[in-house]
Amino acid sequence: IQIAGVGGDQQAALFGQTCFDKGLAKNTYGTGCFMLMNTGPSAPTSKHKLLTTIAWRRAGRTDYAMEGSVFVGGAVVQWLRDGLGLIRSAAEIEPLAASVPDSDGVYIVPAFAGLGAPHWDPYARGSIAGITRGTTAAHLARAGLESIAFQVADLVDVMRQDTGVAIADLRADGGAAANNLLLQFQADLLRVPVVRPKVIETTALGAAYLAGLAIGYWKDLAEVKKNWQIDRRFEP
Average pLDDT by consecutive 10-residue portion of the chain (236 residues)? Predict the structure, then answer.
């Protein structure tokens, strides 16, 4: 079997989201969160501890990306399930969180393994603030989901400062991208639309695109772009 494409997981996800043009960005909502923005043929150096990486190289051209990594994304839902026993399955987090209008002032910092970008503090530890007698499991569930979006918002903010590019929208993928409440809160926080494609396993999809283009299954990027379809667009 011919090996026709090789890609890192987040670079493949960026390709699978068809972020082929400079300024297009995606965020993968998995156990952690990984945001990449296409910076085109230039490789800017971050002043805010983000990573500069090769996005891909094909047809004699190298495209670069800026990357930010959040250690604990969907893992906060796993902790609410396994550590606190608030839910029995990850799918239960959305209806529980949606049963209250907001977190009632409760905030969770899920620094269970330190904090990733843009802080890179391995000694940070998690905290829950704003608890009152009225705090319920639903408020903790909502604060947990919101903690994911707040960390992504940190990445978007410093990425904009580093590149001078304000993203028009954020493309979402990964398992936690199926959570409507999370993506709506993310759009509200960023004040830009968050777009979820029909296929949210875009890492595997991007690897397939890279290999398919190499062997001529798809003739060019334009043909690949036609495959990308929106499942839902979350307006702020």
Answer: 92 97 96 96 94 94 96 96 95 97 97 95 97 97 98 96 93 96 98 97 95 95 95 98
| Host H or E run for residue 37 | strand 33-40
127-129 vs 107-109, strand pairing mode: antiparallel
DSSP assignment of 148-161: HHHHHHHHHHHHHH
3-state class (DSSP) for residue 186? helix
Distance CA 15, CA 123 (A): 34
Asked whether the bond before 41 is cis by omega within 30 degrees of 0, the reply is no
- Side-chain-side CA neighbours of residue 171 (13 Å): 26
pLDDT, one tens digit per residue, over 114-136 is: 999 999 999 999 999 999 999 99
CA distance 19 to 37: 8
Locate tokens 């705090």: which residue?
Answer: 135
Nearest C-alpha neighbor of 117 from the set 58, 51, 174, 166 = 51
User: pTM of the entire structure?
Assistant: 0.94
